[in-house]
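User: My instructor asked us to take a sequence, write out its structure as tokens, and then describe one feature of it. I'm not sure where to start. Here is the sequence I was given:
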Amino acid sequence: WQALRELASDLADLPPVLVGLAEPNNTGQSRPLFNSAALIRGGEVEETFQKRVFPGSDLFGEGRYFQPGEVPRILQIKGKSLGILIGEPFEGRSDKEQRGRLDPIAGLRAQGADVIVNLSASPFSAGVQQYREAMLSGLARKWSLPILYVNQLGGNDELIFDGRSCYFDAAGRLSARGRAFEVDIVVADLDEPEESIATDDLAPEAEIWRALVLGTRDYVHKCGFSDVLLGVSGGIDSALVAAIAASALGPETVLGVILPSPYTSQRSIDDAQALAANLGIRTVTIPITEIMNSYDRELREHFAGRPKDVTEENIQARIRSTLLMALSNKYGSILLATGNKSELLVGYCTIYGALAGGLAPISDLPKTMVYRIAEWLNSASGKLVIPESIITKPPSAELRPGQTDQDSLPPYPVLDEILKRYIDEHQSRADLFAAGFAGAVVDHVISLVGKAEFKRLQAPPGLKVTDSSFGRGWRMPVAWRSG
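Assistant: Let's start with the prediction itself. The structure tokens for your sequence are:
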């Protein structure tokens, strides 16, 4: 509120401004705050408007600490009656609407609103803009009211807000739209609307790329860092994360660490170096063979009589994470984890190894989407940002001779389709069988998803770009078997 008063003073000579912030609740009701919009005009904080309906989304949990406002409020400016609405006007989407059949636009319409001004913090997910615009257009037509939709911009932990504020006239026609993932000012004339619509590439690859760049930049800077580092293996996942980081923060702030073992192919080393050259990022190389040998010597007595297995593979991953975290601590840089969503869902990642890091930029991207974005990036850039060799070679962790991911998992197109149906679309085991997937494959994947929850619970924060990410809205038990 001190900052709000300072802002009011700074903007004294400008038109009135609505600013969203938390307002203390002094009514004696149960929750301590209102989610409010404050009007500043003529250098003063003039009045506030409280949010009345909380969406049922599992991302915010506003009902834990915000008290719903009681009365719809109208703002009079220049002969116009503005109905102030905080949050998304998604009919039927909130608990309170379902219980009390409260329609926030109906209340404002009854108070005589000429136009709805909607202050929103609507997070990005792939394809959400088409849904938003269809919903807003339909509401404008239903109530014969223009709607000004003003959306937040920027990254906040896992959530990315994409902006794209827009204006729909009373006939539901889109008359103005701001740029996506960028600061913008959109002017909408309520009396004589003129079309002012920023071009917006709605292809999933383009949207997700821009979201991840924005989300990575804001996360790193808001956590107080300027530089990042990551392990670059010569694989597709680390290549895409490196490209995101270089675009978000500048290549001079990114350090790629190459950590070859006896099982690392020369092709992978060459690919990692070629990627770094394309991006203009710095690299260092730290071989881990001697460190692996020291582990073998110390554990030889304890492992005697037992064959080599995933234990030795995980030791390699954990050696790498120890070295990466040491560099992170010493340099004051944040470590970016490079795992994708497919791996995280089925646990094809080493806890305290590949999962180490302060941010996992692509942890909500299925492996097939990682490839799609890499190919889109090369095409959109007009050059090979990510070397073709990285895109075309079979994916492998290279933790044993001749290893590929498909030794342990179904082909990624099959795996990702099963995961999409099972996780995103809530299809049952029987549904997957009926869709033609092999029973043994389905059972294997479902079992892996359940077993890997303890890893997801300890994974670094990721950036949400789908409706089924592993952030604060994800709910799955770790201990799920019967006794």
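For the description part of your assignment, you could build on this observation: Confidence is low (pLDDT under 50) at residues 91-101. Try explaining in your own words what that tells you about the chain.
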